[in-house]
Amino acid sequence: MSRKDSGGLLVAYFSRTGNTEAVARIIHEKVGGNIFRMVPANPYPYDYGECVKQAREELERDFRPALALMLENPQSFDVIFLGYPIW
Q1: Which H/E stretch holds residue 10?
Q2: What PROSITE patterns would the database entry show (predicted)?
Q3: What is the CATH number of domain 2-83?
Q4: Distance between CA atoms of 5 and 69, rounded to whole angstroms?
């Protein structure tokens, strides 16, 4: 996680191909605060069709993938911008 002024703000994002990351970085440049990249402990498949299939199966099972690194004290932020893909 990288810190900038406006410590009460957090931009947290998950990006498989970099699109959501690009938007998260733009938001971070504008509002400051902290930025945190969410990375799944087990990466999603590179192939888009396989990725969507896995995401659909996880959704049907109400599965929440583990993260490689957890954010400490998310409750310490006043505002959290959350970016993620829609598959």
Answers
A1: strand 9-13
A2: FLAVODOXIN_LIKE
A3: 3.40.50.360
A4: 23
